[in-house]
Amino acid sequence: MHGVRGGPIVSLLRRRKKTIVGRWNGVSGRNGGWMVVVLQVVVEVLDAYERGDKFYLYTGRGPSSEALHLGHLIPFMFTKYLQEAFKVPLVIQLTDDEKCMWKNLSVEESQRLARENAKDIIACGFDVTKTFIFSDFDYVGGAFYKNMVKVAKCVTLNKAMGIFGFSGEDHIGKLSFPPVQAVPSFPSSFPHLFPGNDKLRCLIPCAIDQDPYFRMTRDVAPRLGYSKPALIESSFFPALQASGENGKMSASDPNSAIYVTDTAKEIKNKINRYAFSGGQDSIEKHREIGANLEVDIPVKYLSFFLDDDTELEHIKKEYGEGRMLTGEVKKRLTEVLTEKVERHRMARAAVTDEMVDAFMAVRPLPSMFE
Amino acid sequence: MGFSKDHLLARLQELQIDYSKYEHPPVLTVEEQAKYVSSSEGALSKNLFLKDKKNRYYIVSAMTDTKVDMKVLSQRLGLGKGGIRMAPEEALSELLQVSLGCVTPFAVVNESARDVSLLLDQKFKNQALCIFHPLSNDVSVSLNTLGLDKFLQSIGRDSVYIDLEANPVVGRDQPPDLAVYVPSNSVVVPEFPTKTASIQTASKNVSAEKTKPVASAKPSKLAGNVKSAVEDSALLVFKNPEKFVEEILDKTTALLLSEGKGENVEALAETFRKRLTSEFTHLAVMYKNTAYSQGFYAGTQSQPKRP
User: Fold this and answer.
1) Residue A344's domain spans which residues?
2) ipTM of this complex prediction, to 2 decimal places
3) Where does the YbaK/aminoacyl-tRNA synthetase-associated domain lie (chain B) (predicted)?
4) Residues in chain A within 8 Å Cβ distance of B185
5) Chain A nearest CA to B183, separation (Å)
6) Beta-sheet pairing, A90-94 with A55-61
7) Residues A258 and A116 occupy one common structural domain
8) Residues A197-217: tens digit of each pLDDT
């Protein structure tokens, strides 16, 4: 497929926008960064933005467990960065119905988890005047449902089975779910937000495993007279123990990840005990050839979470050339993560039920492009 | 002000809920209560006021012969094995506004108890009548569970009946079956009068004396809303302009003191921007969100303008 692929999004953004508020650390261009696949359509959307045509952001979360770890938060941190850099509105879909169906949770439990997860998401610092959070059980209906039916009419059973791997044994709830995740890409699904603005483009930062849903959406969009959404897909954040893409953080293995509820002591222990090190086996060897930054987990994590570019470069240089030891890198990482988790916890504590209600209220957002 | 027993009984009458009332000397235990109220009048209940590690509270009301295993209950709520224990006495008076020996499902009528989860023994449903204290341990009231349900509905609560003796497996593929009843809000109950100037000192009512306590509800400080009274001062940062400014100045001066030695002023200014921008932006967004949410909530409660 022709177009910009795998290019550093930061430089892409810089070429199109002179000044960016803040910057996104974990994007490729750095060793061990988060791989970002940038599709041609993104370039179109950003070009249109330069000409004054706005867009909105759409992302989501499947609320399957209360325990959120840092791997869950990163896509939201990235989305927040995009919201701030471009000053555009954001819709966040909580697919409680999906989890109810796939994880066999009760309706009440999945709704409860959706609200709990919403609190952690809000704590990442989204602006309530620019953000609409909704849960499927609450919101599906009206204009949203009309779009769902339009999408569903365009996808045959055979096609769905091909894309999603459904079989004759799967219940029909699963089969009818994909349109639910597709239609937030169309502004007419949110008449309270974008009335009469059917041509508004949509940019979707999401995890790479969501690709099938959006490939289906992009296939269907032109047939409905809608614009195709643009996607920024990211690979999964690495687990503490594993390097490379096969080891992702898992909510079922508490030692693979740092949780937002972990204490400073737990964070320190997890990093010291489980974080896979690219350092050499002996100090002498390490001083001689330096650390293997490709597989080193602490450095990967620092490249996401350490705000100070200069310090990060310094660490990579010193560690990569053997002058800094794994212990020091891990110590710095512990400090950085403890501070982040603490900040998140404090913000999370300030999220009241009223605040969740406000974010989830079906209301207009008059200052969404300011 | 917390509900008094007379207030409650009047409410039951208003709702046309049938009940029978038995007065007796104050009792602290089920055994004592049984001396005055025989089982022919109804099934006696034992009532536990519990708390988990995250400051969430529960009333478990059960038939006296139902075995309530705290470990199992804790697991079924998704709190792990030792996640739940008896709530301290202060919580009894702060949240339920009743005294020792008085825990009762009726206590949730108080606004201060709005985040307390009420779990009822499903065996109550098979009884013609069940006996509870109506907020005071010198009276017992017997009524049918339908009456209790009606009362709970009148205060906007759903009755939750569960099989307290069940011991289902809880594991990765079997989520805790009672987790949905865990309150979404935690409540911080002070042990001592709090330090912040804006909060009045609490007056402690019931103490663990042997003499039978007077069954009066403790007057609450702020219209029964315990949570706002004991708000963590850290959270005031997001609500209170002075605290917000204080936090910003604290962080800025701390940075100045640690980085300001011998730095030229321009470089220092740069450092400030670099180190503080993201943190302060986050703080400001949360401040904005808090203000908006309060306004939004006020909007939902406001009366329409008079024509």
Assistant:
1) 254-348
2) 0.78
3) 24-151
4) 352-353
5) 10
6) parallel
7) no
8) 898 999 998 887 888 999 999
